[in-house]
Each structure stands twice: as C-alpha cells, then as structure tokens.
Amino acid sequence: MQILVLLMKKYTHLSQGQRYQLEALLKIGMSKTYISDFLGVDRSTIYREIKRNSKQMRGRDRYEADFAQNLSGKRKQLRTRYHKCCQPIERRIIWLLKHKWSPDQISNVCKQRSIAMLSTEAIYLWIYAQKRKGQDHTHLLRRHHRKRRKRKLDKQPRILIKNKVSIDSRPKIVDQQTRIGDLEADLVKCKHEYLLTITDRKSLFNIFCKIPDKASRTVEAAMIKELSPHKNWIKTLTTDNGLEFARHEDIAAALDVDWYFADPYSSWQRGCNENQNGLIRQYAPRKMDLRDVSPEIIKQWQKQLNSRPRKKLNFKPPNQLVT
Q1: Measured between alpha carbons, how far is 35 from 22 in angstroms, rounded to an integer?
Q2: Could you tell me how many helices (H) and strands (E) the chain has, helices first?
Q3: Strands (E), the chain
Q4: How far apart are CA 190 and CA 44, in angstroms?
C-alpha cells in the first residue's frame, strides 16, 4: 500500500476538481501534508500550485480555485511548443546558419515571430546527427572544433606604459552597463595585418577596421579616424596592456574620453570585446590574409554584425540602440 502511494505521489498538474478541494481544505486550515495525502499528490505539487496560481489581495496571497484554473489555462496556451524536424525547418536552419546566426538566435527569434523551429539544443543535436550521416554543417557554427589551450605567461617583464589609469579607478556605472558610450578595444591578428576592434559595453555595437601593423602610431591614427564620427556619445575606453596602446594619452585627448587599462592577464575585465572578437572570427579567421580584403568588405562585415540579433539585447540588433 505504501509503495502504491509513493508511485501516485509524483508531480502532475491538478485538475479543476482537485483545485476546488484544495481551496476548501486551505480555508479550514488543513496542513499541506494532509492535503497532499488527501489529493494523492506529492507535497511539492501543493506548494508549487499555491505559489504559482494564488491571487494577491491586500498584500497577501489567497488561493482561489477559479482564478487558479483560469491562470493555468492561459499559461498552457502561451507555452512554447517546439516542433519535430522536417524539411522546411531543416532548410530554414541551414539558411540562417549560412547568414552567421547561432542556433540560440535561430531558435529564439523564430519563437518570437511564431515560426516553426526546434529548440536550441535540438538544433545542435540535429547538426551533429547530420555530420554522422555525411552532411557536415559544423563549419557553419561559431568556434567550430575549438580547442582550449593553456596560456603560457611570458616570463619576460612587460614594458610599462606611462601614465596608465587602472580599471579600479573606472566609474562604477561602467560595470552596470546601463549607458551607451563605454567602449572596449583590442586587436585581432590574422595571417597578415590586424583588425582593430571596438565594442560598446551596453549595446554591443562594433566598430572595426584593418591596420597594417600594431605600431602605437598606427593604432592611434586608426582609432581617432574611426571614433571621431562617434565622438559625441563616447565616454570611456578600456583596453589591455598591449604596447599598441602606448599613445593612449594622445588618443584620449583627441577624442575627449577617459582611458582605463585592465589588469594584466585579466581578459574577463573586457568580456564584451573578447566575446565580439570571437564573432568577428567568423568573418576573419586567423589564417585569412587581410591584404586581399578591401576596407569596403570589412565595413560590410561590421554592418552585418551590428544587424544580427543578440541574446543580451532580447534578440534585438545593436544598430537599433546606436544611431
């Protein structure tokens, strides 16, 4: 008999009749344990039902069966229904992957637009299942076949950059990411030449251009040229301790911004820019020869990246926040 009770006590949604019984038993002051035994459900089902479907009246939660039944029905209608994989969904996945969308973006944007689509995990499972069948789409994923490599710290002392201001002195509002204008910058190396990448912390808006080398004067000229059109909304700049930013004082004076340096070997302090560099690698792999890429094509990359939906922005593109 005890085994039968234990089998019956598993989480399930209450029926309308059980909800009326629950309301009546709560009114006469019966305990949650007694109610769960009486209804033949687990005690956690009762707690969850009361927590999710109670009506707040005069600052207190009050359970009413009719209100709970109506609320549960509405929640069921709004529940996400993922679909089984079929040819139209497969074609849609491949088409969006080719346009540099991630499975997470594909699933959530289709959900927002009421378009039939798999869940994020199901998309990944389908991609790797197709690979086993001889149809490899993993090259369309970001950071495909990425391997974690242990970083070796240089034993040689780094040459100090003069008059650096530590990230510890940066205003706390920058950490909150509540305003536009707090930028992070870095260099992305390819086979030949570099990409100077600049990211806004709040909007994830990206500005990048190619430069022939990482000399501080080259970086200075490129940053002033690229950021001057946006000078009116830029407030701070944060970079690592690379010598390419040795002329930070001249750049900060030209742009009228405050410049801060992250701690050595602390890339997470510039997490927004580091993440965006990973996305930029979809366009500019490490082995790409940037000498064969025109500035116009790079600006097309920038426009396309700023037009892609972002999870952090509730799947809105960065260019809707920065004009």
Answers
A1: 7
A2: 13, 7
A3: 55-57, 60-62, 182-189, 194-200, 206-211, 236-239, 258-261
A4: 56
Q: Which two tokens stand for residue 17?
A: 């009749």
Percent of the chain that is helix, strand, coil (3-state, to 5): 50, 10, 40
Cα angle 140, 282, 242; round to 5: 150
pLDDT mean across residues, the chain: 86
Name the pLDDT band for 75 (thresholds 50, 70, 90): confident
Residues 6+ apart with CB under 8 A from 76: none
The pair of structure tokens assigned to 236 is 């701070």
| Beta strands 236-239; 55-57: pairing state | unpaired
> Is the distance from CB of 184 to CB of 238 less than 8 angstroms?
yes
Q: Are 287 and 295 in contact (CB under 8 A)?
A: no
pLDDT per residue as tens digits for the range 193-230: 999 999 999 999 999 999 999 999 999 999 999 999 99
Q: How confident is the model at residue 282 (pLDDT cuts 50, 70, 90)?
A: very high
pTM: predicted TM-score of the whole model, two decimal places? 0.60
Q: Is 241 within 8 Å of 158 (Cβ atoms)?
A: yes
**8-state DSSP, 321:** T
The residue assigned the tokens 């006469």 is 28
Q: Tell me, rounded to whole angstroms, the distance of Cα 176 from its chain centroid.
A: 16
Cα-based angle 118, 278, 108 (whole degrees, multiple of 5): 20
Q: Are strands 60-62 and 55-57 parallel, antiparallel or unpaired?
A: antiparallel
Asked whether the predicted pLDDT for residue 160 surpasses 80, the reply is no
CA distance 127 to 120: 11
Whole-number pLDDT of residue 151? 47
- Cβ contact 204:217 at 8 Å: no
* 191 and 218 Cβ atoms separated by less than 8 Å: no
